[in-house]
Amino acid sequence: MGNENIEYGLTRDQPNPPPGKPLPVDHDDNNNNSPSTPLPRGWRFWAVFSAICFTTLLAAVESTVVSTALPVIARELDAGNLYVWFVNAYFLTSTAFLPLIGQMCDLFGRRWMMIAVVSLFALGSGVAGGADSAAMMIAGRAVQGIGGGGINLLIELVVSDLVPLRQRGAYMGLVFGVFSLGTAVGPLVGGAIVDGTTWRWVFYINLPVSGAALILHLLFLRVNYDRETSILERLKKIDYAGNAILIGSVVSVLIALSWGGTRYEWKSYQILVPLFLGVFGLVLFHIYEGAPWVRDYPTLPERVFKRRTPAAALVIAFINFICLFWTLYFLPIYFQAVLGMSPTVSGLALLPTALLSVVTGAIAGVVLTKTGRYRPLHIVAFALIVLALGLFSRFNRNTSHAEWVIIQIIAAFGLGIMMSTNLPAVQADLPESDTAAATAAFAFVRAYGSIWGVSIPAAIFNAKFARESWRIDDPQIEDRLSGGNAYEYANADFIRSFPEPQRDRVIDVYARSLQLIWQVSLAFALLGFLICFLEKEIALRAHLETEFGLEEKRPAGGLEAGSDTTEVNRPAQE
What we know:
Growth Hormone, Chain: A; 69% helix; 0% strand; single chain; globular; mainly alpha
């Protein structure tokens, strides 16, 4: 649409290379309309962008705030080995419902879907905060997950609607910088809440923040969408069967990953059957999405996965989030169980990851906007991630403060670069009409990576701890920490309660178990590094064509003061 080109200072006379064309090397940086030159934005754009960043912080903090408080919550609710579902229920629903939410965003518009998912997030927070049983906590976290996953998707989708692909790296850098800050500050907030008040405030604190986010979106997030089609006709376009297959598959895989090595042996039918059904369901889902009767309105169009660069970028996103959550959920275990830090101090110890991933993500986004090259950034990022995860495996109780800080910095650089440069690579070789589908696919594989990034190391950690627990030489302590309870009791005060020499032996078993999970994580990082070389360098589009941009309001006498300059003919407005 020409109106979007005028709004962003670009015209149709500017070249826009087709999907798959190699990236041109030279750009005229002296031209005000150069793709590498930041373009002016109106106040309404910045109002929407500020609301998005605020909402990003809400979802990001929640995604990790529970990691520090989890041992306390599990103990007070007497959760046993169900504690892992306090995390997995959130990740499960935040992943499984993403494609459905993405499809509904095209059918019902971005504004009301954003309001709906923030409301669901608040509802789930209230249920989880008031939980008096493990079942109620899991239910609240499941509702929270639908809202949290939807928030992350809507944020990326709205930015993609408002900013040309060439410039998305810079804006995504700001958004993911806030997200990285929230994910790393989450454990600090959780630790402070656990140390200073009841764990219930880990969830109750979301209520006023969600209320503020809703007000911001009601006031400023006014964007275009198709209102001519009836609600009934839109509902008919939803791919119900595809979504059912996908949700069932994700549930099956997660059940296998959560119970394997703890509740049941990996070779037992209770694990193998759901794992097989889950993998088979994912294959069936992709076959079904290519069926003739689904091709017009698929949940995740198969073309997103068939093109080389989007497919490679999606796998990279999956592996990147495995590594991210692997780090965020198991560094606190090292800090608390091995180094003897309190939950609050453990959160502070993660600040190198928080601060530097924010800065690095913002810088990487600017570099991407300036150069238009994402492939070298991805290669450098994964090289740093590989180095950091390999060095994590050296951690023990004698590791110096300087060493674990420096190695965290290396990891933060790699993870930060990926945060702001991954989505543009997914979208580069696809038309703007596939923005919602590509963004939903990206959000899905990233969230799916989060599930694996918590479940896989948890299974490895518990299995390794069980094999090494003979070193404790105290049957009572061994029994107390068996059956997946080692994670639940990874608390400095609890470990200090053991007499010597059992205390040192328990710490040693924790250190040995953690070393193995870092060694396994190295394999995932190396795979991601190799896949980076499969990406092609695609020219990033410098103009924007979308039906979901900001709605414009014109007074009778002319342009609204301070508004962006756009054409009159717009799609129906919200």
